[in-house]
Each structure stands twice: as C-alpha cells, then as structure tokens.
Specification:
With about 600 residues, the chain is of the alpha/beta class. It is built from 21 helices and 22 strands. Pfam families: EAL (PF00563), GGDEF (PF00990).
Length: about 600
C-alpha cells in the first residue's frame, strides 16, 4: 500500500498522467461533436490502467487530488492539440463540491490555458451513494453561470443518477454501455433506451450512448432517437485522436437513415412556427403586453441561454392578471414564476408519427397549448397540435390515395418517388423485382379469391424478409412487387424468403396437383398443357451512386433481371452483376 501511495504521489506531482481522447459522434451527421478525455497512468507504471490508478487513489485517500489532476491534464492536452468541438471530462460529485474546484478556480485555470469554458462539459461520475442534492445543484448552477455545462455519466449504473437527472437537469446524459451492448437482441433494453430518449427530449438534455461496438447496435440506437454516441465501432481512445470520423460517410450504417430515410417522413421541424422566446428573467408584464397586442399568440416559450425551460400559456397568464391586484403583484416579477415548468420539448428531427404518439400519450394541454421544438437542446421554434393533426391527416390521405387496395402497400407513385430520392442522394441500394410465375393460369383455375390470397402471401413474406427500418416494399400491381433494400445481408434475406414461399405456397394447391408437381390447363388453341406449380421469381439489380439517372432506367433494368429469373426453374433469384455496358452476369436459381 505504501508503495502505491508513493508512486501515485510521484505521478501526480511530476505531472505524468497521460490523457487519451475518444470522439463523441453525431450519429445523424457522421461528424464529431467533441471528445471525452480519459486518463492513463505512465506506460511503465503498475498504475497504468485507470482502474488501478483510481483504486490506489481511493486507498491512499488521494481521490480529490487525482480527480483534479486528471481534469487539468485532459484540458491542457486538449488545448495543446487544438482539437475542435467539446471536451467531456469526468469529475466526481464530491470533487465538484470541494473548495479546490470552486467555479472561480476552474474558470481561471481554463482562461490560463486558452480554453473557452463553454466548450467544457463536466461529466459527473458517481462511484458511491450521494445524498447532497441541494449543494450539488447549487454548485452546478454556479458553474453554468461561468459557461461550463454538465453531463450525467453512466445512466443506469450509478446509485441515484435518475434522481440526479431530475435534480440537476444536465445538458448531456450518457447512457451506460450495459444498455447498448446487444440492444438489437433485447426488447427490454430497447424499451429502456426509448424511454430515456423521450425523457431527454422533454428535459432538453442530449443523450449520448456509450460503448457502441457493432453496426446493429448503432442502427438500433439511431432508430430509437439517440443522436450522439461513442464506442470502439466509431473510434478508440487515442493520444492524438482523429479530427474527422475515420469511417467514410457512405459506409456508415446510418447513412441514408433517419432524416433522409427511404420513407422520408415529415419531421417536427416541418411544423415549425417562429415564436420569439422570452428570457427567464424578463418581467411578466412584457409577456402580458405581447398576448394583449397579438390575439393569435397562444403561448410564449421561455429560455435560459437559448435552452427552453418553460412555456407561458396565454389563457393562464391573462386569467391570472384579470384577478384583482395580480397584475400589480406579479407584473414586475420574472416570467419564470408563471411559466409552465414542464413543457413538451421535442427534437426537430422527430418524425411526425413519433411526435403524434408522444403528444397523444402526454397530457391534453400539450395538444392545446402546443410544444417547443429544439435542435441540439436549444430552442428552435414552436409547433401546434392543429398543425400536427393536419399533417397526419395529409399523410393518411396521401397514403390511401397511392396505396394498393389489396395489400395496402405503396403503389407506383411512392415507389418511383422513393427511387428518385435515393438516386438524388446517391445512396447505394438493391432493387428487387418480384413476380409470380404462371399466376394467371392459377388464378383462372382456383379463382380470384385464391389468387388474392397468394398475392397477399408474397406481400407478407416481403415485409417479413426486409429490414423495416432501412428497406422499402411497394406493390406495382397484380402479382408484381418492388423492394428497395439497403440491408447488407439482402441476398440471404431473399433466399430465406424464397424457401419460405416454397413451404407456404404448396398449401394453395390441391393434393392431386401437389402430387403431380403441377396442373393442366387449356392453351390458347385449346390444347391441354401441363404447367408446374406457381413459383416466385426475383430479379435483382444493385444500384451504385451515379449508375442510373431515373426510376425509368432502373425499371427497365429490373424488368430485364426479372425475365432472366423467370427462365430459371422453380423459385428463383437472378442477380444482375454486370455494370452497364458489360457482357456477363451471374444467376442463382433454386
């Protein structure tokens, strides 16, 4: 123990701590938001690992000194490297309350090394139960007054960090890696993260997922509305970290995803109304005059340094001021006293369908008084329940207008619009043309009801086979379908679908026809002809950026691929592997 203490004393005293930095990535844009500063001991020391370093500090009662030394080392090295964006640095709540880390001292230190406090995020890391909520809240408020921001680290791991979230209202919340690992395989983890994303939106905090190690985890997090993340998949901690995310944008799992996805749903930002907010310290009289002068003004957002903190509701304030002496009593007091302190705050990139579910699940007043729209936690504008319902109605009418009446799938217009949008975005996609073989003779023999049932089976299997979050299925008409796939494992998915069709389609034929392997029908000249059981053909064209100019060209290419698939026996998959102008292809039949 004494050896550890002496070694730790030397490491801190001789400033031998080694900072490394891990990028925190904007999962929507693929850009770097900032870096988390992490600490290692000297490479030749027994205290090299962070775990050993902090265990020694705790046993030697030097946690406060080590914590402050780590903060200073990370900040100094961050400034030396001239890294862009934000610096996230860990600090224990007890350290934050100590005299040595009082706001004035930290501000002076940051000014001395030339680092703007607004770029520094203090990550509160809990290692033991903490009951000092009031003093901690007061201290974080003072630090915020100096420009620093607060993050809550390891949500879901600490002793009371849900209570801390409520008490401190942090600017960032970091989700513990336990809830990220294999989230795509665990519905309970998905539900937890979905709930945390909703709470973050309403509280104005930005949610950061830690420990992302696989593309499947990343796609799931993006789908659940998590905007920021870090982990080995994106970049490992390094002494000299990259200034740009090392993966190319086109290769990122979220590329062409949430904002520019196949469905291209309208977003909350499309409902935006520009309403000038009021700062929390502005007197109520100012809000009263705005309501009185503008009968159409239904609510006024209240912000603090650009972050939404409340909502002044027209009917509440006017009714209050109509009571005797209330205007005189409250007119000069800050508007934060009369604001609704729990407004509905939503991300600008929330889809209108997600927003609708959120509003319906919330209290009725949000539908009446409207909601605040924020971007990166900062005020952007307002939306109304009326505008939301009107947009939802428009979407429903549009979907009904162009949907296939039998399957309910998007028809030709949305299929073509989606293809053209993908081409415009230069997004690689696999286009699949699905068609039933010998369908008309089957329909004539067994009747239209059986024919409709077989078409519905194909629709069901296509929807079952694709990735609902990344792929698109449309119904051209009759027994023709189109699928637009961005899934990396598209070929395996299609082969499984053909196997499944082969298993299920047999039940649509009589025992005699199944035993014979087909059925006999009359040809055009009246002669009997034997046809095999109805099968499914899939023609596939892989579309790369710049390869085709419009949905017309892709339609012609997939039609040709479908013809080639139909030449193969049984349920077949034909993949056009030629580049335009080439002379060879490869087909796969089953």
């Amino acid at each position: 123990m004494a050896g550890w203490c002496r070694e730790l004393e030397q490491i801190i005293g001789q400033r031998r701590l080694q900072p490394v930095f891990q990028p925190i990535v904007d999962l929507e844009a693929g850009s770097i938001l900032g870096y988390e500063g992490l600490i290692r001991g000297p490479s030749d020391s027994t205290l090299h690992s962070p775990m050993m370093l902090f265990e020694a500090a705790e046993r030697c009662r030097m946690l406060l000194r080590l914590d402050l030394a780590c903060l200073r080392a990370c900040a100094e090295r961050f400034a030396e490297l001239d890294l862009l964006g934000l610096l996230f640095v860990n600090i224990n709540p007890e350290t934050l309350l100590a005299e040595e880390s009082r706001p004035g001292a930290l501000q002076s230190f940051l000014a001395r090394i030339g680092l703007d406090p607004k770029r520094v995020i203090l990550e509160l890391t809990e290692t033991r139960p903490n009951g000092g909520y009031l003093p901690l809240r007061e201290m974080t408020t003072r630090h915020r007054g100096d420009g620093l921001r607060i993050a809550l680290d390891d949500l879901g791991e600490g002793f009371s960090n849900l209570r801390l979230w409520s008490e401190l209202r942090p600017d960032f919340v970091k989700l513990d890696k336990h809830f990220v690992q294999n989230i795509h395989l665990d519905p309970l983890k998905e539900q937890f993260v979905r709930s945390m994303a909703d709470i973050a939106r309403q509280s104005g905090a930005l949610l950061v997922a830690e420990g992302i190690e696989s593309a499947a985890e990343l796609r799931t997090l993006c789908r659940l509305g998590v905007r920021y993340g870090q982990g080995y998949l994106l970049a490992r901690p390094q002494a000299a970290p990259p200034r740009e995310i090392p993966l190319q944008a086109a290769a990122l799992p979220w590329f062409g995803g949430r904002r520019h996805g196949l469905r291209n749903q309208p977003l909350a930002r499309d409902l935006l109304l520009e309403v000038e907010p009021l700062e929390a310290g502005v007197p109520n009289e100012t809000a009263y005059r705005r309501f009185a002068d503008d009968p159409a003004c239904f609510a006024i957002p209240v912000v603090q340094d650009g972050v939404p903190v409340g909502l002044l509701r027209r009917h509440h304030l006017l009714e209050s001021f109509a009571k005797p002496f209330n205007r005189e009593l409250y007119g000069k007091k800050p508007c934060q006293l009369m604001m609704d302190k729990q407004p509905l705050v939503v991300s600008a990139d929330l889809t209108v369908h997600e927003l609708s579910s959120l509003v319906v699940a919330a209290e009725q007043r949000y539908l009446v008084d409207g909601f605040i729209i924020a971007e990166n936690g900062r005020y952007l504008g307002m939306g109304t329940g009326f505008a939301l319902m009107r947009k939802i109605t428009e979407l429903q009418l549009s979907a009904a207008r162009y949907a296939n009446p039998l399957t309910g799938l998007p028809g030709n217009v949305p299929i073509n619009e989606t293809i053209d949008r993908l081409l415009e975005m230069r997004t690689p996609v696999v286009v699949v043309y699905a068609d039933l073989d010998h369908f008309k003779p089957f329909n004539d023999l067994y009747g239209y009801a059986a024919g409709d049932a077989l078409i519905e089976l194909v629709a069901h299997l296509l929807l079952e086979c694709v990735d609902q979050e990344r792929d698109f299925v449309g119904h051209v008409g009759g027994d023709d379908f189109v699928a637009l796939m961005q899934s990396e494992d598209w070929e395996c998915r299609l082969r499984r679908m053909l196997e499944r069709f082969g298993e299920l389609a047999a039940q649509y034929f009589s025992d005699a026809h199944r035993a014979a392997g087909g059925f006999e029908v009359a040809s055009r000249n009246g002669e009997p002809v034997f046809l095999p059981l109805t099968t499914l053909s899939l023609g596939v064209v892989r579309v790369r950026a710049g390869q085709y100019l419009s949905h017309h060209e892709i339609g012609a290419a997939t039609a040709e691929a479908k013809k080639q698939a139909k030449k193969l026996p049984g349920n077949s998959l034909f993949v056009e592997r030629r580049q335009p102008g080439a002379s060879s292809c490869c087909a796969c039949g089953r």
